[in-house]
Design goal:
By secondary structure, the chain is of the alpha+beta class. About 35% of the residues lie in helices and about 15% in strands. The strands form seven sheets. Strands 2, 3, 6, 7, 12, 18 and 19 form a seven-stranded mixed sheet that branches. A five-stranded antiparallel sheet has the order 14-13-23-22-21, with helices on both faces. It has a three-stranded antiparallel sheet with strand order 1-10-11. Helix 13 packs antiparallel against helix 24.
């Protein structure tokens, strides 16, 4: 090869090398200059995570916008994994425990294992907490232990490196450099295990913060913030906590919220309502949920829509940016039909009357009165204006009082207005009178002979309280003559009695928004269901509201409103409207709804009304309670009997000429039916003369007339 060829080869090789170098140089310039910032961001930012931002829970208010359940700002101590150094979880939690204990602050712990007991050899032993069988079984399942494993087995597993690594380090150098003071302290290990277990139950991670303690004092919050430099990943944030304007007002209706339990989580997951990457609105372990009353019935409305924030971290897992990408939307406001002040008056009247009756000396006058309910309904709309139950409780201290009150008799947590089932006694007689007049088995002018004893079914001879001689339907309602209604019931038969009772809503669901009992009507089937035989005497006993009839106080109030409306039965309801948070927009509004019509004429209802008005007047069964009341009152007393006591039942509506409200009062062991009349009188006094029904709505507008 000649010099010329060598020179050419050298030139070609140099050109190739030069091109390669130029390409590298171009790429380097492109990377450093053109895309330098982009690559720098990738190196420094690393990756992003999305966190859910909780929405404020909606409020529950009365018909005038006055709050029953609202929110106040709370200070919560949380753990945020984005800021919590990997591998340092136990150390940070241990230090936080020391600080909180020095401040007298507790925290949430659902681990069903008690504090350690140390034997004479210095060995720690543990016991499962009593009455926690379901939680213990779940713990063993999560630890993959046999059902017979004891608490020591469970704690050993929780402390192992495979779970929470609560012992000494296997690396001597690491142990020497970073000691673990909790490793030789069984009590500290138990506390750490409880917190780590709670964190796991609540799905702690980058996407879900762990609420260590909710609603701490300013002192605790300030101390934690001041020690923030030594507690990476620990933060104090503002959130909301449920607050009651007065927890004793309508607690059975408002209901209570509570934390999610494992059973709730399983159910929510099955329903597709649990949090996931694709369902940012799903429930998480830190959420609360409505557990009873309106809080539960309107959970979907009250819960609101969660927001999202994006957290950007660098390659060293350090947060470099936080951006709220979707703002949270607070839950809706549930506007109830209740009048808060009338509710208070109703509760106080019921409790006061029961206390007064207990000072008496005979069963007939209510010396053993112990419990009851009172309901006030708007006749023209079916709106429930007040609904009281006694004994009751305080929503504000529900969880603190639960252990004690759950053992109390009569049961404070039972909503007697909606779930208590009572014989109606003579308050059932207007239903039978309506049926008898409509079916033609009696006439308004017909007299029935009351000699004090009913002899048609001899030798079964039930009695009347008095001898009324010849008596017509109006007079029979006024003085509550049993003989007249035995005869009317016999002529009707049980099927026609029950047909009309059903039209009145007795033994039927009312349609209210919270759980209610259906009750039952006397019949051959109900008699045989309790192992007894149906006979002719049962027909006439049913006609005076005895035997197997069992209705709720809210049904009795609806029945009374239907009598007042000439047989038009409206669906009862507790929710007037749903609005956006702050009343800005009406989302839905409940309209009055007719659900049945008793097949009787206005003339028939006028006859029944005449008798009920007479019952409130001179010679009537509740005259003393209404003698100075300025409006005409239609009423009926009832005294259903059991083997041991008399229940006081009372119904009324007013003004009789143009009814506005209907009231039902039930007092267990209350004696004669007239003992409930003073409660109704106080409700009526406040409704007509207390001023609430003329009060202006707090939020201007036309939502709540």
């Amino acid at each position: 090869m000649g010099p010329r060829e060598e020179r050419l080869r050298f030139i070609i090789t140099g050109a190739v090398v030069g091109l390669v170098m130029a390409a590298f140089l171009y790429q380097l310039v492109f990377i450093q200059i053109t895309q330098g910032e982009a690559y720098k961001r990738k190196v420094t930012q690393g990756y992003t995570r999305t966190q859910t931002v909780d929405a404020a829970r909606g409020e529950i208010v009365d018909r005038y916008g006055r709050p029953f359940a609202s929110n106040r700002v709370s200070m919560d101590i949380i753990l945020d994994q984005a800021y919590l150094p990997a591998g340092e979880e136990n150390r940070v939690i241990y230090d936080l425990i020391q600080l909180l204990e020095s401040l007298g602050q507790g925290w949430s712990d659902s681990l069903p294992i008690g504090a350690p007991e140390v034997d004479s050899y210095g060995n720690a032993h543990y016991r499962f907490l009593p009455d926690r069988e379901a939680q213990v079984a779940r713990l063993k399942e999560e630890l993959n232990l046999a059902p017979y494993a004891d608490a020591d087995n469970c704690m050993w597993n929780l402390c192992s490196a495979a779970f929470y690594d609560l012992g000494h380090s296997d690396d001597p150098e690491e142990e020497a450099e970073s000691p673990r003071p909790w490793a030789d302290d069984p009590a500290a290990q138990r506390k750490l295990a409880g917190i780590r277990y709670e964190m796991a139950q609540q799905n702690f991670g980058y996407k879900n913060n762990f609420v260590f303690v909710k609603d701490v004092s300013n002192t605790v919050a300030t101390n934690v913030q001041e020690h923030g430099y030594a507690l990476p990943g620990v933060d104090v944030i503002q959130s909301t906590v449920r607050e009651f304007s007065d927890g004793t007002l309508a607690p059975h209706i408002i209901g209570i919220t509570g934390p999610l339990y494992k059973e709730d989580m399983d159910q929510l997951k099955a329903q597709g309502l649990w949090w996931s990457e694709d369902n940012q609105q799903g429930y998480r372990g830190t959420d609360i949920i409505g557990r009873s009353g309106i809080e539960a019935a309107y959970e979907n409305v009250l819960r609101g829509s969660n927001g999202e924030r994006q957290i950007t971290l660098n390659a060293q897992h350090q947060v470099v940016d936080v951006t709220e990408t979707v703002p949270p939307t607070p839950g809706g406001t549930v506007v109830l039909t209740l009048d808060r002040d009338l509710q208070r008056v109703t509760q106080e009247a019921l409790a006061g009357q029961i206390a007064l009756l207990r000072q008496n000396t005979t069963i007939d006058t209510g010396m053993k009165a112990s419990a009851g309910a009172a309901v006030c309904v708007d006749v023209k709309t079916g709106e429930i204006l007040a609904m009281a139950t006694y004994p009751s409780y305080d929503n504000s201290t529900y969880y603190e009082d639960y252990d004690e009150l759950s053992k109390q008799k009569p049961e404070p947590y039972l909503n007697r207005a909606t779930r208590g089932i009572y014989r109606p006694g003579s308050t059932y007689k207007p239903c039978v009178a309506t049926a008898g007049l409509t079916e033609g088995v009696i006439t308004p002018e017909e007299d029935v002979m009351c000699g004090g004893v009913y002899t048609r079914l001899d030798p079964f001879n039930p009695r009347c309280m008095y001898v009324h001689s010849n008596i017509d339907v109006r007079r029979a309602l006024q003085v509550s003559c049993n003989i007249f209604f035995y005869e009317t019931g016999w002529r009707l038969g049980i099927d026609l009695q029950n047909e009309y009772a059903a039209h009145f809503g007795l033994g039927e669901y009312t349609g209210i928004e919270i759980p209610e009992a259906k009750g039952q009507r006397s019949s051959r089937a109900t008699r045989e269901a309790v192992g007894d035989t149906w006979n002719n005497g049962d027909i006439i006993q049913s006609a005076i509201g005895q035997l197997d009839h069992g209705f709720t106080p809210v049904q009795m109030a609806g029945y009374t409103a239907t009598l007042a409306s000439d047989g038009t039965r409206r669906q009862l309801h507790l929710v007037k409207a749903v609005t956006s948070y702050g009343f800005g927009e009406v989302i839905e509004e409940t309209q009055p709804k007719v659900i049945d019509q008793v097949p009787a004429s206005p003339e028939t209802f006028q006859v029944v009304r005449d008798g009920m008005v007479a019952a409130s007047g001179p010679g009537g069964t509740s005259y003393q309670s209404w003698l100075d009341f300025p409006y005409t009152v239609a009423s009926k007393t009832g005294t259903p009997e059991t083997l041991d006591y008399l229940t006081s039942n009372y119904i009324c509506y007013m003004p009789a000429e143009d009814p506005q409200i209907a009231i039902a009062v039930i007092i267990e062991d209350g004696g004669h039916g007239y003992t409930g009349a003073p409660v109704a009188r106080k409700i009526a006094d406040y409704y007509f003369f207390g001023g609430t029904n003329r009060e202006e709505i707090i939020v201007p507008g036309t939502l709540l007339p």
